Amino acid sequence: xxxxxxxxxxxxxxxxxxxxxxxxxxxxxxxxxxxxxxxxxxxxxxxxxxxxxxxxxxxxxxxxxxxxxxxxxxxxxxxxxxxxxxxxxxxxxxxxxxxxxxxxxxxxxxxxxxxxxxxxxxxxxxxxxxxxxxxxxxxxxxxxxxxxxxxxxxxxxxxxxxxxxxxxxxxxxxxxxxxxxxxxxxxxxxxxxxxxxxxxxxxxxxxxxxxxxxxxxxxxxxx
Length: 223
What we know:
Layout lengths: L3 H8 L10 H8 L3 E5 L4 E3 L7 E7 L1 E7 L5 E8 L3 E2 L13 E4 L3 E7 H10 L1 H27 L2 H15 L6 E3 L4 H7 L4 H13 L3 E4 L2 E4 L2 H4 L1
Helix pairs in contact: 3-4, 6-7
C-alpha cells in the first residue's frame, strides 16, 4: 500500500517539483488522493472534465486518440516519475485524449486549488511549470513540423536517431519500448507503411532488426 510518505519521497525527484521546499510539498500533498490500477484500465476519458492533475508514482500511461473508424492513434506514453494533465490547473475544458494504464500503475491525484495556492507562493515552482509547458509546446511544434515536411522514411530515420541520442546508446542500438504498431501511430504512419520502411532500411544495409532491438550500422546515412 502506497502512503503519502512514499509519495513525498518520490515526487520530490520529479522535474516539476525539483527545488521546491519540503514544507511546500507536504502542504501540496496533504489533500492528494492515491489510486492504484491494474494494467489496461482507462484512467482518462475523452470529454470528461478534471479539477486536478496526476503524478505517476509507478507504472505507465498510454495516451491515445480514437479515429472515426475506432482505431487507436497513439499520443505517446508517460512513465513513472512524471506528471500529466497540468493544463487542468489553468483550464476547465475536458481533456482531448484517452489514457490507459500499460501495466500496474499507481497515480497520485493533486487538486487544482492545492496547486494554484502553491504556484502563487512559490516562484521556483511557477518558473518550472512555465518551463515544462513551454517544452511540451516546443515538442508538439516539432512533431507537427515532422508530419508536415518529412517523408515516411525520414520520420522513421529521425525517430531512430532521436531514440539513440536520448538513451545515450554507445553501440548505436535501441530497444523499442512500445509495439511497432504504437511506434507507427506515434509517427502518424500505418503499421504497414512502418514495416515497409523498416524492410527498406534493412535491404539498404542501414539497420538490422531482431524483435524490438534495432541496430544502426551507419548513423551518418540515416541523418
